Amino acid sequence: MELQRATAENRLFEALEKEWGDQLGNYEAESGEYDQPYMDHARKIMAESPSDPRYGIYIVLDTDSAVGTRFKGMVHVNHAWPNTPHATLRMVWIMLAPQFDFADVDPDEVGDIIAALLYGGVELCQADMRSVCLKMHLGNYVDRQFAVGLARGLSHRASSLNAAVKGNWLHLENVTEGVKNERW
After folding, report:
1. What is the DSSP annotation of 166-181?
2. Extended beta strands in the chain, E state
3. Which of 3, 54, 81, 155 is deepest in the core (most CB within 10 A)?
4. Are 90 and 135 a contacting pair, CB within 8 Å?
5. Is the distance from CB of 134 to CB of 121 less than 8 angstroms?
């Protein structure tokens, strides 16, 4: 699985909408009930041509899947200079494919998706959206507790990467230095 930017040119978002719409039909759910505000905003971003390099819609894509769900999740990513001296990459309103809301799924698959989001965010910090800090918004208390354990584990690694949960955000600081030479 990998995190890929959706653009008007590559039409990944259109393919995601079709696949997710088909999934919703399988569960007799309507798209408006499930995702309307997020999808409307994503459509607005997708209509921009050329894409703004400071923000975009990124998709967790299962590149190995010949059948089944290819579009596992979606996230809005933006590159900002908040009230800090360093650039920050923010990952907000993470959505998983409808099947994860309506059916029992393998927890390992959800873990793989979260890992793809996190590693993809770190890669963006080191390349297209150079940032010292990464902040990932956590959707609920369960996400927060997972992130607390993750931050604790990352803090014990022999690295200068600082990880903490603050409110409902996972903060990774010193991303550029902390994962240099694949010590992450």
Report:
1. ETTEEEEESHHHHTGG
2. 2-6, 55-61, 71-80, 88-96, 133-137, 162-166, 169-173
3. 3
4. yes
5. yes
How many domains is the chain built from?
1
Return the closest-CA partner of residue 169 out of 146, 144, 132.
Answer: 144
Distances (CA, A) of 78 to 2, 143, 148, 156: 18, 20, 23, 28
Phi/psi at 142 (nearest 5 deg)?
A: -65, -45
Which contacts (CB < 8 Å, 24+ apart) does range 178-181 have? 179/122, 179/126
User: 103-156, pLDDT tens digit by residue?
Assistant: 898 888 888 998 899 999 999 998 889 999 999 999 877 788 888 888 888 877
- Residue 141: give the domain boundaries: 2-182
CATH number of the domain to which 70 belongs: 3.40.630.30
The total of other beta-carbon atoms located within 10 Å of residue 9's CB is 9
The predicted model scores a pTM of 0.88
